[in-house]
Amino acid sequence: SLRALQAKCDALGNAHIATVGGRYFAMDRDQRWERVRRGWDAIVEAESEHRASDALTALQAAYARGENDEFVAPTVLDGAQPMRDGDAVVFMNFRADRARQLTSAFVDPAFTGFSARRPVLSSFVCLTEYDARLPASLAFAPDDLRHSFGEVVAEAGLTQLRIAETEKYAHVTFFFSGGREAMFEGEQRILVPSPKVATYDLQPEMSCPELTDKLVDAIQGDSFDVIVCNIANPDMVGHSGILDAAIAAAQAVDIAIGRVSDAVRAAGGALLITADHGNLEMMRDPATGQPHTAHTVGPVPLVYVGSRAATLRAGGALRDVAPTLLALLGLPQPADMSGQSLLLPG
């Protein structure tokens, strides 16, 4: 917690929290460089609209402004100084998607996101590999994961499409491929631009209609053996904590799923619908009555839609999704996969 971090800094004596800000700004992942610039100015130049005596005071002031954790406006704390040449950076984020843009602003010699003074650093260390193309040191090098679902599909000579809004681009590519950014043989990608709004409660349908149009076209075109799609609304609008927007997002997704299901049935294919966490189903904290903006941790559904009858076993985990997909495709499961198909025989 922030309180624990502050206590640790106080105990060390020579460590200080310089800025506070929500991930919406410095950790944007959709090329919204105006957001990143606000975080950059606070971190690098010690300049921001808001200032506070300490981190907890900054957070309390943000709450008083109606901001939740994700949207806390960058705030510079008393005693913060601009970064200088010769400084070193250790970036402690382990997720690549929200660390790439800020990292590129520091280390990419071809960076064009915005124009600003860039301190000449003695070193820049990433906790994990955010992008193999970025010239930065790694605290932990990536594992060489073999025989992910996409690789097995490619080795079988099948074609695959990865499709999503740009807000969730990494989830159907880098993350789904086990930390691999490069495309597999026979893989194509369609990225639909996410709407340029400040927060997605302002456009809760996001780009779901356009995404669905392209997805249905791909299904009907019969050019791909496998399609992996992410629909972003339940997560991204869920983070707003605004119930009316969440309802509108759910309605947009309901329409999309209906269209996709009809297209899959007509094509004689099979459809699996699942998630890696919840969000939209809890918009109020039952204990406090306040808006709930975080992911939920309960079990998620896995729904099968197809022209052939199938029964899924109870339980299961995310590791079982890829084996289930391979079973539907009639492909053997590699020994590297620790899960098992959720399809029951018969």
Please specify the SSE layout and strand pairing.
Layout: H1 2-12, E1 19-20, H2 23-26, H3 33-45, E2 50-52, H4 55-64, E3 75-77, E4 88-91, H5 100-107, E5 123-126, E6 137-138, H6 149-155, E7 160-165, H7 169-172, E8 187-192, H8 208-221, E9 226-230, H9 233-236, H10 243-267, E10 270-273, E11 303-306, H11 321-329
Parallel strand pairs: 2-3, 4-5, 5-6, 7-8, 7-9
Antiparallel strand pairs: 1-3, 10-11
Helix pairs in contact: 8-10
Folded structure, characterized:
- It is a single chain.
- With 346 residues, this protein is an alpha/beta fold.
- The protein has helices spanning 2-12, 23-26, 33-45, 55-64, 100-107, 149-155, 169-172, 208-221, 233-236, 243-267, 321-329, and strands spanning 19-20, 50-52, 75-77, 88-91, 123-126, 137-138, 160-165, 187-192, 226-230, 270-273, 303-306.
- The protein folds into two domains: 2-138, 3-Layer(aba) Sandwich (2,3-Bisphosphoglycerate-independent phosphoglycerate mutase, substrate-binding domain); 149-329, Alkaline Phosphatase, subunit A (3-Layer(aba) Sandwich).
- Strands 1-3-2 form a three-stranded mixed sheet, covered by helices on one side.
- α8 (208-221) packs parallel to α10 (243-267).
- The longest helix has 25 residues, at 243-267.
- The N and C termini lie far apart (50 Å).
- The mean pLDDT is 96.
